[in-house]
Amino acid sequence: MRISAVLWCKDEVALLPYAVAQLLRSGVYSVSIMDDGSTDGTAIALDTLHAVLPNVHICPRVKNLQDALSMDGPVFGPIIARDRPDWLLVGDPDEFWIPRTGDLRSLPALRTCDVLVVDRFNAALSSGKIDPGMIDSQAALCNLPLVVERRRMTRAIMAENPDLRWVEHHDPPKVMVRPDMVASFDLGMHDATSASGAELRRGQAGGVLIAHLPFTTFSRFERKIQNIAKVFDRFDADHSGARGWHWRRWLEIAENGELAQEYARQFFPPKTLNQMRAKGRVATANDIFARRMAEAAAHKAQAAET
């Protein structure tokens, strides 16, 4: 079973090495990184990773977003030809893939599905100071606090409830795909289209989840807002309707000079975080996996009785 990973990257020097390390220790065969013109030192870090690790590769920067999402496009085409992967996953450097067993290749659904849906949870933090010890190993990531009681937010909901934290939003999942069965990813890598037109076999991955760290330092958040403005300038037609609404909202907040307040709102005072843990609103990956296994065992027992 061979899995190749692709990371889309822009100004993520602080998290990129840790995300790459987690993928490699989770059984990923190769990690290819597309750096979209970083200016924070990411390019230097990427060159260093590529020099030290033979299975870390650099992808070309893309100009056409739709071509970049295609299996035979300038990003995925060369990777598939080089690695011949059974599975392909795509993410960002602030997304940490955490398999329960420590090895993505052990997921049973990889043998029965074409698209594997992986839940994504935002980290529940008291501050943006990320100690490397929080993300530098499988064991550490399995104990990272995650927001598990979430709600699907919209621009209208947040306008009516200005005190809501976006970090409590129900992030859409990401997917792993069999590249021989799909034609392309959708924008955001939340789904894929069939190569043949036949319905894809989709499965929910209970044995893996993604810990998302959208908020660390304020300088990183501010830079992301500046970068997304450039993305909209380049690919505005690809973000029509409600797509990317939260980024447009943050751009407006930045224009009003309130970005620092919005950033600070995403964290939880220690007392609040402890209360959320006690109520089950915050949990670790270990907690989530244990609950899923218990639910699966109960479902199996109930099915046997009937």
If you had to describe this structure to a student in words, what would you say it looks like?
The chain is an alpha/beta fold. The protein has eleven helices and 14 strands. The chain has helices at 16-25, 42-52, 65-69, 76-83, 138-142, 155-160, 218-235, 245-255, 259-264, 270-278, 285-305; strands at residues 3-9, 30-35, 56-58, 87-91, 95-99, 115-118, 120-122, 146-147, 174-177, 182-185, 192-194, 202-204, 208-212, 282-283. The strands form four sheets. Strands 3-2-1-4-9-6-12 form a seven-stranded mixed sheet, with helices on both faces. The relative contact order is 0.15. InterPro entries: Nucleotide-diphossugar_trans. This is Glycosyl transferase family 2. Pfam families: Glyco_tranf_2_4.
Précis, in short:
The chain has 306 residues and is of the alpha/beta class. It contains eleven helices and 14 strands.
**How do the helices and strands follow one another from N- to C-terminus?**
EHEHEHHEEEEHEHEEEEEHHHHEH
SSE-based structural type = alpha/beta
- Give the overall pLDDT as a whole number: 93
What is the makeup of the main sheet? Answer: 7 strands, mixed
How many β-strands, per DSSP?
14
Beta-strand proportion: 15-25%
Would you identify the CATH architecture?
Alpha-Beta Complex
Indicate the low-confidence ranges by residue numbers: none
Write down the overall geometry: globular
Report the helical percentage. Answer: 25-40%
Compute the separation of the termini in Å: 36 Å
Pfam families: Glyco_tranf_2_4 (PF13704)
Protein name: Glycosyl transferase family 2
InterPro entries: Nucleotide-diphossugar_trans (IPR029044)
